[in-house]
Amino acid sequence: MAEISQAGAIGIFDSGYGGLTVMKEIVKALPEYDYIYLGDNARAPYGTRSFETVYRYTLECVQWFFEKGCPLVILACNTASAKALRTIQQNDLPRIAPEKRVLGVIRPTAEVIGNYSATENIGILGTNGTVQSESYRIEISKFFPDASIYQQACPMWVPIVENSEYDQEGADYFVKKSIDQLMDQSGKIDTILLACTHYPLLMPKISKYKPENVKIISQGHIVALSLKDYLNRHSEMTDRLKINKTEGERHFYTTDSTEDFDRHASHFYGREIQSHHVEIQHTGSFTAIKTVETN
Ligand code: DGL
């Protein structure tokens, strides 16, 4: 068991590997910070789980980041952002860590997605959890009140990606099926948002089955630009983050097998990764999470 202190790092969280597609863009835009990534692979997927379960798992992981010394945590997972973020921000943070911040990926994406569409007819592809939460419809309507939003859950896409089947022939059926189901809702859709951080790995197949005039938007670069803007506006936060002269440190953790994580993660992150294992044990109280870390 080894406690590694990474005080002042930015925490990036996902249920599994998907958040690495967001981290890749964040690190590119803001290389000078230290980052800790946690994939809760042992309990993924989150997309089919209840609000209560996603909230509990996410809060446990957020508390782990706080114990590691992260003043800021990004939920690089749409499902966790949809089902847990608001409760954590409004109910838990004031009680457990009023000086820390947890940000999600839905609001920064909703703020700009209407700018990509000429017809203001926008398709959202996400997990069951994200779609059922209606978070995108609610958030986009605040910034683009005239936009029409069409949503389609793609329950098979995360398992396909997590099992490294995204470039195999079997994936074609499910990718085509979900895109067709979305496009059947309206022929006016000209922009499709990949509202799940796993989906960019399916981009070649999505491009193959989408109508020619439809744009596909993945959110990594949108979230990275939004974080950059947030940090420019919040010096009280940058004062608490470690800023390096050149590149900061990157550390990767998984709640499941490090061998599996390292093998799959490089496809999402674009370079080799050496992860550590961490067990996040729920002790019955949200204010008393016990974490066990192994190298
Ligand atoms: N990558 C997550 C998201 O963006 C979901 C994956 C899962 O179902 O665990 O929604």
Overview of the structural elements:
The protein is of the alpha/beta class and 295 residues long. The protein has 2 domains: 10-105 and 221-292, Rossmann fold (3-Layer(aba) Sandwich), CATH 3.40.50.1860; 108-218, 3-Layer(aba) Sandwich (Rossmann fold). Helices cover 43% and strands 18% of the residues. It is built from 13 helices and 11 strands. The protein has a 7-stranded mixed sheet with strand order 4-3-1-2-9-10-11, with helices on both faces. A 4-stranded parallel sheet has the order 6-5-7-8, sandwiched between helices. α13 links the parallel β9 (250-254) and β10. The longest helix is centred in the N-terminal third of the chain and has 18 residues, at 51-68. The chain is globular. It binds D-glutamic acid. D-glutamic acid is lined by residues 14-16, 18, 44-47, 77-79, 127, 130, 158, 196-198. D-glutamic acid (DGL) binds at residues 14-16, 18, 44-47, 77-79, 127, 130, 158, 196-198.
List keywords for this structure.
about 300 residues; alpha/beta; Rossmann fold; 2 domains; 7-stranded mixed beta sheet; 4-stranded parallel beta sheet; 11 strands; about 45% helix; binds D-glutamic acid
